[in-house]
Every structure is written in C-alpha cells, then in structure tokens.
C-alpha cells in the first residue's frame, strides 16, 4: 500500500475541504464527477466521491485503488461486494447531513400546512440518524409520531419504543416522511416501498416527503395518487432517474428540489472531516482537519419551532428554479448555495 508522499488521490470536484487538507501528504487530482473514469482512476490509490460516481468493476478494474470514500450518507452507488472481493476499503459519512434533512422536512411542512402541526400524525419510515431527529422534533411540536423501521424493530425487540408497521403508517398518518436507504433485496427491500398498493392503502390523504432515495417511491404511483386524491401533497427532493426527472411529478409536487435536502454548510463539513479521518486511518497519515469555521458545528437542537424552520430555509425558491429549467437539475445541485442548519 502506498503511503505518505507516494499517494495519488482523486477527489470529486464538488467535495469541499478535502483536497486542500490532503495536499501536504498526497498528489491530489480534483476531477468533475462526469470525468471520473477508468483512465483517471487507473493510478489512483483512493477515490473521494459523491453519489454521482458509480464505483464498480467498470471504474475500478485494473486500478491500484485500495479505498473508496463517499462524502455522503448513502452507499448504493458503490458496489461493495466488488470492493470487498478486491480488498478495496469503503467508507461513508452516515449521519453527516441528518440535521439538514430534518430542517428540510419541517421547512417544507411549514410551507404546506396552514395551521399548526400539533395533533397531526406523522409516520417516520426509517428511524436512523435523520429519522430520529425528525421524530424528536415532531414530538416536541405536538405531533403523534409513528415509527416504522422493521430492521430496528427486530434488533431492539419489544421495549419502551412502540414500532408501527408500514400498513399502520399508511392508514393513520397525515404526513409520511421517508428516510431509508435504497435496497433491492431481502425482506426489508425499500425499492418502490411506496408503490401503487401502498398508495391505495392511504386513508388520510397524507403529505408524502421523499428526502431519502428516488426509487424508494414508484413515481407513477405517486403521480396517480396525487391525481386521484389519495395523496394530499408531495415534497420531492430525491427522484427516480436523476438527473432526468419526471415532468409529471415535477408539475404536481407542492415542493420539488434538486436533491439538496442535506446540503448544509455543517453537513458538508462533517462529511469532509469523516472522509479525511478515514483516509488518515487507512494510509497511516497524521490527522487532518478541514480549513473551515468549525464553531458552526453546534449540537443539533432537541426541539424547534415551526417559525424557526420557516425562517431557516425556503424550499419554494429551489422549487421555482427547478421548474424553470428541469434540465439544469445537476447544475442546480452542484452549484447550490449551502445553507446554515437551524
């Protein structure tokens, strides 16, 4: 394994802070995501990417890469089986943007719900880093919270926390917010978790929020549900087929944004620091720190008000920009003006 000054590391150009911190220890190449290919990667010891770079045999075969770091929560763009079979370490940044996504959820609800949220039922599907914050803030706002996370339910067993089935959420929730990874196999597969059958089971014309992964919902089913009134409103940040998104869903969604729910200054800082820590451990480098105002990394508040959420972020501006030019999806995402968290 290469060490120290012998390292070559490819850093996706939209990942902040990392390249600068690495420069004393490695030859760093900053490359736009669309240009990261087998030739670029061939002599790289490590890659630092986001979700747009598919890390699989087509990219990594024949390279000397021994580590892939994604400065994101999700890893479905990485073929982890291939990496494991070829001794390529994989690191991600779980939870890095959780407060930002929770901010997005409540800033969006503040624009859609005319009255207070107190008394409404919210179904939180996926109770990991993001879902846990969403659930806590919702409880403090006086909402009835249904927690749906079958893997956690099995792992934790019966206890103080009451778990709800997806069926219970579909029947009882006024708001359904999705915070799962995207998986295609097994009893807990989340691909098209919200499909036509799920929409047909909805009883309260809920607001559907997808700030997880695009294919967690079946786009056609959501469009049909909005048209026939089974779904009251849709908030869509993650889309099937990105960056070529559904014109029908874009036209019907109350809020439609270009996959930027987690794009906060603090979230990017956390993800970049995690990436640096992973590289330092893997290659035996000194600990590196990002060159940024880390005083911004305050702890996540235990509770918020709707007024705070509304004042902290306006999703309607991003919705208007995407509707003006859907073909600019990737440009809007890559050049997003990072916001401060609540």
In short:
The chain has helices at 18-22, 38-41, 57-60, 80-85, 98-112, 129-140, 150-156, 166-172, 196-200, 219-228, 247-252, 265-283, 306-312, 315-324, 329-334; strands spanning 7-12, 26-31, 46-49, 67-70, 89-91, 121-125, 144-148, 175-178, 207-210, 233-236, 255-256. With 342 residues, the chain is of the alpha/beta class. The strands form two sheets. A six-stranded parallel sheet has the order 7-6-8-9-10-11, with helices on both faces.
Report on the architecture of this protein.
There is one protein chain. With 342 residues, the protein is an alpha/beta fold. Helices cover 36% and strands 14% of the residues. It is built from 15 helices and eleven strands. The protein has helices at 18-22, 38-41, 57-60, 80-85, 98-112, 129-140, 150-156, 166-172, 196-200, 219-228, 247-252, 265-283, 306-312, 315-324, 329-334, and strands at residues 7-12, 26-31, 46-49, 67-70, 89-91, 121-125, 144-148, 175-178, 207-210, 233-236, 255-256. Strands 7-6-8-9-10-11 form a six-stranded parallel sheet, sandwiched between helices. α11 (247-252) links the parallel β10 (233-236) and β11 (255-256). α5 (98-112) crosses α6 (129-140) and α5 (98-112) crosses α13. It is globular and about 60 Å long. The model has no long low-confidence stretch (mean pLDDT 95).
